[in-house]
Amino acid sequence: MKLFYCETLNPRKACAVARYLKSPVEFVRIDLGRGENKTPEFLAINPNGKVPVLQDGDKTLWESNAIMCYLSDVAKSDLWPHDGRQIDVIRWLSWNEQHFTRHASVLYFEYIIKPLFGIPAADAAVLEEATKHFRTFAAVLNTHLSDRKFLVGDGLTVADFAVAVSLPYADAAHLPLSDFPAIQRWHDRLNEIPAWREPFPA
User: Fold this and answer.
1) What is the pLDDT of residue 122?
2) Largest separation between any pair of C-alpha atoms in the chain
3) How does pLDDT run across 126-185, given as a tens digit for each residue?
4) pLDDT confidence of 33, banded at 50, 70, 90?
5) Sheet of 59-62, strands arranged across
6) How far apart are CA 134 and CA 108, in angstroms?
7) For residue 74, what are the CA distances in angstroms to 21, 24, 58?
8) Helix (H, G, I), strand (E, B), or coil: what is residue 54?
C-alpha cells in the first residue's frame, strides 16, 4: 500500500491511524508548494487534487475518514467498529466535518498555513467569527467528554483521531483549548500514543 500525504490536518488523521496500526504502507510525501498535487499523474489517482490518498493494489481511496476506516478493516482492528458503536462513530465523524474541525481549520489555515506562503491573515472579523463557532462546538464536545475517556464506548476509535486532529496545533492556531478542560484531558490522553504525537514519517 502507498499513502500519499503532506503535513496538514486531513493527512494527519490517516497517517496517525496507519502508524498506530503499524499498517504496511509506503508513505509518499506530496509537496503542495511545488504543485505536486496538481500534476497529471497525481490527478489520475485523485481528481480532487488533494491528500491523503491510499493505493492498495488496484484500489485507490481518497478522503481521510474513509482511509482510516479502510486501514482499520485491513488490520482487523476495532478502531472502526462493526457493532452498535458504528453509528455513533459516524455521528461524530459527521459532526466534526460540519462543525468542530470545520471552524478550527479556519483558524489553522489563517494562523499557520497562510504565513508559510507569505499570505496575510484574514481580517479580525473572520477570525472572531471562527473563534466564536469553535467555542460553541467545543462546549458540546467538552460536555460529552466530561465523564468519559474516549468519544465512543470505552476505547479508541477513528472518531478520536478525526475530532482531535486540530488540537496539536491549538497554541499556534489560537484555539482557546484551556477553556475546555475535558477536551484538554482527552487530548493529553491521546498524546500518550506515539503515533498520535508523531503521525508523519521521519
Assistant:
1) 76
2) 49
3) 899 999 999 999 999 999 999 999 999 999 999 999 999 999 999 999 999 999 999 999
4) confident
5) 26-29, 2-5, 53-56, 59-62
6) 12
7) 10, 10, 15
8) strand
Question: How would DSSP label each residue in 4-35?
Answer: EE-SSHHHHHHHHHHHHHT---EEEE--TTTT
Phi, psi dihedral angles at 2 (to 5 degrees): -120, 135
Q: Is the pLDDT of residue 121 over 80?
A: no
Over 90: is that where the pLDDT of 92 sits?
yes
Rounded CA-CA distance 111/66 in Å is 28
Asked if 82 and 143 touch (Cβ cutoff 8 Å), the reply is no
Does residue 131 contact residue 138 with C-beta atoms inside 8 Å? no
- Grade residue 18 by pLDDT with cuts at 50, 70 and 90: very high
The one-character DSSP state at 191 is T
- Under a CB-based contact definition with an 8 Å cutoff, are residues 100 and 151 in contact? no
Distance (Å, whole) CA 140 – CA 188: 18
- To the nearest 10°, report the CA torsion of 87, 92, 94, 97: -160
CA distance to 82, 112, 126, 133, per residue, from 89 (Å): 10, 29, 31, 22
pLDDT, averaged across the chain? 96
**SS3 state at 2:** strand
What DSSP designation does 178 have? G
Q: Residue 120: pLDDT above 90? A: no
